[in-house]
Amino acid sequence: MITQRDVIDTLRTLVAFDTTSSLSNVALIDWVANRLDGLGVKAFVQRGDEPGKANLFATIGPADVPGVMLSGHSDVVPVAGETWLSDPFTLTRRGDNLHGRGSADMKAFIACFTALAPEFAALPLKSPVHLALSYNEETDMHGMRLLAAHLDRAPVKPAACVIGEPTSMQIVVANKGAAIYRCHVTGHGVHSSLRDQGVSAVELAAEVIVFLNGLQRRLNEAERHDGFEFAHTSVHAGQIRGGTAHNITARECDFVFEVRALPGVRAADIVARVRDYCR
């Protein structure tokens, strides 16, 4: 009988693996694979096309019929620049909460299905439980794309998938995709005392970002879908960097913006409006 302590102990081990997206996740993948191997469950470890990256896929139960896939990503976001009251890679209990990088997003879910694997293996399952672990979900989703391509070629595919992202224990049946764009602005650098002879890339980038904010207001007046927490298509500028000094008109500026579109809305159409404005 698997207990809560078993799950917490498993989570403690998983949190201790520093699987920040820029680093390797192979140690965690190998640990899960070895644990499954001890149950007689052979895991397929798919090595990524970049060093130190891997996915995992395993089937518990009959392999010739489709089952339910429990899917989680193994990577976590960085801790750099954050203030922690404890070591982020040591699971720490404070009151009723367990703190650690990735403890909610989403190593707790991985801990649950890994700890329960012995019980799954002991059951006379008529349809299988599939376990899937991917990498780089927090950045470019590359790991899941590789794993999805592998599953697409498989003779038997999962019939359904449960993704263990933290949702406050509410069932979520859809999520907006994110299309991410980098905008590079080139100006003409001169000393600020001669600013009329220069072109500030920072100021031009700011004009485009103001346009994005106005575009969001127009999107709020268009389609809505109350099945999403934010009921509209969103456009958001999240990063900007440019300029070299306070007294030089910026020669270059980069900013990154994303579009999260409702079903039926194409991110490409939103970006076309941005391109038209820039022209």
Overview of this structure, please?
There is one protein chain. The chain is α+β, with helices and mostly antiparallel strands and 279 residues long. It is built from 7 helices and 10 strands. A hairpin with a 2-residue loop joins strand 4 (92-94) and strand 5. The longest helix has 20 residues, at 201-220.
In short:
This protein is an alpha+beta fold and 279 residues long.
**Count of spatially separate domains:** 2
The low-confidence parts are none
**What is the C-level CATH assignment of the largest domain?**
Alpha Beta
CATH-defined fold name of the largest domain: Aminopeptidase
User: Going across the major beta sheet, what is the strand order?
Assistant: 1-2-6-3-7
